[in-house]
Amino acid sequence: MNFIKKINLLLVLMLLPAISQASDYSAGIDYDALETPVATQSGDKIEILEFFWYGCPHCFHFEPALNKWKKDLPTNVTFTRLPSPLNPSWMVHTKAYYTLQTMGEAEKHHDAIFQAMHVQKQKLNNKASIATFLASRGVNKDSFLANFDSFAVEMRARQALQLGQSYKVSGVPMLAINGKYTVSASKAGGYDGMIKITRHLIEKESK
Description:
By secondary structure, the chain is α+β, with helices and mostly antiparallel strands. Helix content is 55%, strand content 12%.
């Protein structure tokens, strides 16, 4: 066997585990396929939703890998954060996120809220404490409180609740792919697994 053939064989052998892994992903085992697809809002693009909760330590630890992955998303993919009010007590964080989004400041303070709760151990568990924390970061407190109780924020929070029910979200973090699939850390085998399986499903939907 000449040198070129040896190199080609070596490359094939190196790629086999990745090819095998991708082909082995199965609905019901590595991810879930919805019995009833959910209508997406992304037009002809593939929609990725991230269901999360600021109080969730798993969501906090997933954020670095997620943020890194988001930077290189294909142009035919859209990504949307969805603050899940899976538990009624989580609704305050759902409304806080949408309040900041209404004010055009969600991305600016998103990571800071996670850091405050999970690193600095601040108890941001009600409207007043969240407003005070955000005011320390330059957010207009009166504007935040007014928007928090607005009809627009209330409607978006209700939509988040309904979407969570439609996607049968039972825990966070969870990724939803194009209204058809959901990926969780428990089934994917961890955060890296979530990213890998989501990439696989994006490729599947792109065909």
